[in-house]
Amino acid sequence: MTRPAILVTGGAGFIGSHTCKQLAGAGYLPVVFDNLSRGNEKSVAWGPLVVGDIRDRDALQRAMKTYRPTAVIHFAALAYVGESVHEPADYYSTNVTGTIAVLDAARANAIDDIIFSSSCATYGVPEALPVRETSSQNPISPYGRTKLMGEQIIGDYASAYGMKFAILRYFNACGADPDGELGEWHSPETHLIPRVLMAASGIIDEIEVFGTDYDTSDGTCVRDYIHVSDLARAHLKALMHLEGGGQSLAVNLGTGRGVSIKEIVQAVSRVTARSVPAVFRTRRPGDPAELYADPGSARECLGFVPELSDIDTIVRTAAPFFGLKTKPTRLPLAKTAAPVALRWLRNSGGGSSRAGQIR
Ligand SMILES: O=c1ccn([C@@H]2O[C@H](COP(=O)(O)OP(=O)(O)O[C@H]3OC[C@@H](O)[C@H](O)[C@H]3O)[C@@H](O)[C@H]2O)c(=O)[nH]1
């Protein structure tokens, strides 16, 4: 029996690749559509790779005509808050124009089910904690605005053209595949947990902690860290929800628990038995002091509960990718994870721009 194909834009990226692995495990064929500008070709291992840019409407059409996907999971985007402030044109072009092109291609091919990567960045500085889906969305960065616009455009397409959507608002994605087949490597790497691990392993000299004077329990920023394999599983649940005739929805994907930067540094030190050199800096512009989700809607609507998102498990799964051993664990970590990660670090220059090639 042929497996139903799912078009996964951005499937060579961090969350996209972990989702492809789970899609394949559940009997789907993930067809990755990615321009490899930030994704990694080595992360595409569970289905075909179409190298193309989401703004290239012809390439999208060709991919859909070739593989006949039954749904689209749309990850492809630029996703650095700081960069979006300095390069808004790139962000509006890729994240907004690109999303419209993906939706138009889906519509032209009678694909009704759309799963969209959104972000807690759409809420801006939250009016209350935990952040509920009904909280007002006032993004404070161009990145956050592009994601909110994406949500609104999808909503309008759904109303007018009979499409159905699952908008998933991620909190802080982190960790790595527990089997050691996939990891987190962004280039440049700006995210907290990978950088703390890089400081622990000596890849960088120290972790810079941005702000120690916030109104939080220990003065550092608090975030809701959710394991990437949990996020991937939520996408699978969202897909099955839509396939089963479920209604369109927009839900937070978080744990409901806030963790401070200091607690992250302590966890890395504890789990890897390494000291983590840290220096304290002034606040990073645009950082809300505290962000954590109310995870209730995802639980009620999708039956989704995180399973790997305690901080020690997050650190244990991510650490091998930075050449770090961890204290004994129940998780079956693959022995090959560290060399793969180190190879990625050396080759972090990234991919090519062979628009529209299908392999
Ligand atoms: O080197 C660092 C990196 C980060 N941090 C701090 O650690 C916290 C987490 O920062 P990260 O950059 O990992 O993540 P952020 O919370 O800024 O945004 C993240 O979550 C929302 C998503 O939509 C964004 O795409 C993602 O980057 C922030 O308070 C940040 O200032 C440091 O103190 N030092």
Automatic annotation (TrEMBL):
EC numbers on record: 5.1.3.2
Pfam families for this protein: Epimerase
Pathway: Carbohydrate metabolism; galactose metabolism
MF GO annotations: UDP-glucose 4-epimerase activity
Source organism, top-level taxon: Bacteria
Quaternary structure and interacting proteins, as annotated: Homodimer.
Protein's name according to its UniProt entry: UDP-glucose 4-epimerase
Native species: Mesorhizobium sangaii
